[in-house]
């Protein structure tokens, strides 16, 4: 279990600093001593975990959540919902109990809400806070304070809420919420599930119909879970694949149990490691297979990767399955921009696979990578270059010249970015020369237990700090 998990009953005010606020945790990663082998289940889906806690806090009754991700990001959401008056308790084995307060009935927080490293927590919560009639202040760590918030505050201002932020729309953000919110109708200018979700969450406490139009579909966990909790939500898909989502305001959400699948974005790391380390064969159990999240699996198959789905089933309203992965040679790939939202968090580790493949890869339409936990276009390029791979950026596309093998030997700056750190580890496991990762502490935000899990597959990490 994650030692950072708060004991219950928990304090109403989040701690000022999370476990990664201390000294950096460097790691020297040498090539895996042999094939990766075994069966593992990666931690719960981050997107679904945040939403489960938020929706349960807005529901009436007691929700039980199984398989919640107990990573730092989600624990920030748990702290925030507690500070807003919901009773949120971590029980044993990833099981959580949330006693909701009902829509519009959250209470003013006594202190600043610190969302740590989590863009999802900050943006979705902004939607909830916009339509509660009190004032709150939200901040985050150095990475989150650099990320754009106007993408949510602009559409949310149409509810009647008011926002004051630092220059450039950056956190800290002061939210003067309204208890008499107007419903919003908005066409998303960026493909962002966080923006869509913030507007829908605000719409829960607005009179009338909230409408969000997304020209490019993004992950639909908010829509699925709102329906699961009893909201009246309708989705229409047009001929070009765009979607219109309509939500009736002020429903009664009723507590419902939630079962969180293993996170496909976390599965990506052992998956790519197993494709690249010769002779490997691993089984990833219970991986979420929502089609809005599986772009990486499609892409790796196009590269010639062996990925076999077994025992596909539905758990807690989401499709899941076991994924068998076998090492083998990969070839370059051309990934269309339209696929980006379904694998937006997977580009750093995909770029590692592309560098190890034979031939050129072109990854298109990556403008959103510039505003992730780090500027992931720049940080992924640096990750590859420092380790001997040829890569360049052409507009919003990344072009990787695959050499059929990885050299390694570089020091990677992870820039407060968990996925960059894990991608660097994967690179090191498959490279000729050891890779030095400057700080692995941020891995705790989304994948607690990453190093021991990789070790259980035979990675033999952590031999030297
Ligand atoms: C998320 C949406 C994505 C993704 C993030 C989680 C979500 O962000 O990168 O890790 O849970 O809605 P954007 O909405 O900014 O694309």
TrEMBL record:
Catalyzes the transfer of the enolpyruvyl moiety of phosphoenolpyruvate (PEP) to the 5-hydroxyl of shikimate-3-phosphate (S3P) to produce enolpyruvyl shikimate-3-phosphate and inorganic phosphate. InterPro entries: Enolpyruvate_Tfrase_dom (IPR001986), Enolpyruvate_Tfrase_sf (IPR036968), EPSP_synthase (IPR006264), EPSP_synthase_CS (IPR023193), RNA3'P_cycl/enolpyr_Trfase_a/b (IPR013792). Pfam families: EPSP_synthase. Belongs to the EPSP synthase family. Keywords: Amino-acid biosynthesis, Aromatic amino acid biosynthesis, Cytoplasm, Transferase. Pathway: Metabolic intermediate biosynthesis; chorismate biosynthesis; chorismate from D-erythrose 4-phosphate and phosphoenolpyruvate: step 6/7. This is 3-phosphoshikimate 1-carboxyvinyltransferase. The gene is aroA. Residues 1-26 are annotated as: Disordered. GO terms for molecular function: 3-phosphoshikimate 1-carboxyvinyltransferase activity.
């Amino acid at each position: 279990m994650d030692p950072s998990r708060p004991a219950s009953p928990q304090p109403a005010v989040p701690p000022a600093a999370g476990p990664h606020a201390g000294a950096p945790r460097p790691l020297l990663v040498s090539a895996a001593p042999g094939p990766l082998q075994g069966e593992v289940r990666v931690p719960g889906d981050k997107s679904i975990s945040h939403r489960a806690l938020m929706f349960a806090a807005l529901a009436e009754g007691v929700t039980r959540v199984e398989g919640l991700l107990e990573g730092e990001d989600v624990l920030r959401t748990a702290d925030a919902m507690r500070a807003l008056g919901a009773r949120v308790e971590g029980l044993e084995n990833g099981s959580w109990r949330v006693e909701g307060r009902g829509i519009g009935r959250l209470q003013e927080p006594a202190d600043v809400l610190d969302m740590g490293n989590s863009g999802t927590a900050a943006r979705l919560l902004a939607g909830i806070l916009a339509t509660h009639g009190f004032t709150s202040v939200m901040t985050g760590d150095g990475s989150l304070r650099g990320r754009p918030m106007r993408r949510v505050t602009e559409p949310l201002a149409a509810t009647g809420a008011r926002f004051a932020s630092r220059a450039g729309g950056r956190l800290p953000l002061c939210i003067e919420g309204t208890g008499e919110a107007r419903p919003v109708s908005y066409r998303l200018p960026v493909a962002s599930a966080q923006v869509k979700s913030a507007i829908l969450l605000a719409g829960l406490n607005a009179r009338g119909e909230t409408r969000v139009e997304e020209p490019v579909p993004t992950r639909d966990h908010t829509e699925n879970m709102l329906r699961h909790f009893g909201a009246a939500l309708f989705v229409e898909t047009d001929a070009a694949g765009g979607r219109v989502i309509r939500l009736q305001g002020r429903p009664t959400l009723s507590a419902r149990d939630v079962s969180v699948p293993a996170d496909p974005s976390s599965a990506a790391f052992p998956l790519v490691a197993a494709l690249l380390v010769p002779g490997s064969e691993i089984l990833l159990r219970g991986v979420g297979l929502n089609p809005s999240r599986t772009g990486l699996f499609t892409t790796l198959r196009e590269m010639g990767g062996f990925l076999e789905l077994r025992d596909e089933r539905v758990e807690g309203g989401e499709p899941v399955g076991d994924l068998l992965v076998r090492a083998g040679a990969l070839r370059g790939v051309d990934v269309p921009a339209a696929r980006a939202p379904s694998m937006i968090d997977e580009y750093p580790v995909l770029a590692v696979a592309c560098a190890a493949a034979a031939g050129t890869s072109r990854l298109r339409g990556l403008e959103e990578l510039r505003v992730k936990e780090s500027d992931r276009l720049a940080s992924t390029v640096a990750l590859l270059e420092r380790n001997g791979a040829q890569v360049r950026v052409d507009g919003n596309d990344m072009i990787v010249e695959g050499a059929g093998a990885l050299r390694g030997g570089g020091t990677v700056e992870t820039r407060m970015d968990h996925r960059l750190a894990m991608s660097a580890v994967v690179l090191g496991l498959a490279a000729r020369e050891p890779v030095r990762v400057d700080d692995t502490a941020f891995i705790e935000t989304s994948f607690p237990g990453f190093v021991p899990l990789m070790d259980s597959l035979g990675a033999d990490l952590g031999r030297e700090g």
